[in-house]
Amino acid sequence: MKIHDISITISNDIVTWPGDPKVDIQLPIQIKKGDPCNVSRWQIGAHTGTHCDAPFHFLDDGKGIDEVSLERFIGPCLVVEVDPKVNIEREDMEKLNFKRHKRILFKTRNSTHWKNNNMVFDEDFVAVGITGAQYLVEKKIELVGVDYLSVESFHAEFEHPVHKNLLGHNVVVLEGLNLSAIKPGEYELLCLPLKIKHGDGTPMRAALRELPKTKKKINVKRPKQKKSKPAQLRKSKTKKR
Question: Which residues of the chain have pLDDT under 70?
Fold first, then answer.
């Protein structure tokens, strides 16, 4: 079964949320400098690249990333493709069939940024709207994934109602997914967070595994066999001499 990598590669030139720490990856210890091995030093924000938000990110009394159940991150999921004018709202989601899935990944025009390696921040990316977030809560969705750096619009209100509604109802939020090569449909989601004590978030390595295709049963008609008559019946029909 094929596995699709839906993570963004972290590098020094990766696009980051305005105001977040810039990525700085250095290699202070190097074999070519005479050291016995290579050891790198990373400076990155918790919400760099493909990452997960913990409830503590927007709720001061919320769970840290190390307290979120790992069961949420692995299991069946549904990739749906939407193309709203601005944000993904209730009316857009009502047209979709979630098929009882509890993990939903939204593929939008955002993914073309990753396909084209566009590292300039897009302030007008597609996000989940206020009514869309409420719809996900009502449907008891356990995990929602989006293909840009935030589930909520860059132009959102200061109170951040989308984040607070989702995280306040323990909905796991995956952000920065690269779904450019993914067809809509059912998959198995595979991703795990770093175990950072009471972390507000963490970079993730996320992947989708294709599900095995069900084989159609072919009914083969076998020729009917003639039943042999019982021995006593055969004897009774024999003529006496």
Answer: 215-241
Please check whether residue 106 lies inside any domain of the structure. yes
Q: Which 8-state DSSP code applies to residue 166?
A: H
Q: Return the ∠ at Cα 133 (arms to 53 and 153), rounded to 5°.
A: 65
Looking at residue 1, its pLDDT comes to 83
**Beta strand residue intervals within the chain, DSSP E:** 3-5, 24-29, 39-43, 51-53, 74-81, 103-107, 143-146, 172-175, 185-193, 201-210
- Report the amino acid identity of residue 143: L
Burial class (CB in 10 A: 0-12, 13-18, 19+), 202: buried
Q: What is the pLDDT of residue 241?
A: 44
39 domain-assigned = no
**44: its two tokens:** 């990155």
**103-107/143-146 β-pairing:** parallel
Domain membership of residue 14 (yes or no) is: no
Q: What's the CATH number where 52 sits?
A: 3.50.30.50
Q: Which positions are annotated as active-site residues? A: 57
How many domains does the structure of the chain reveal? 1
For residue 134, give its domain range.
3-9+46-212
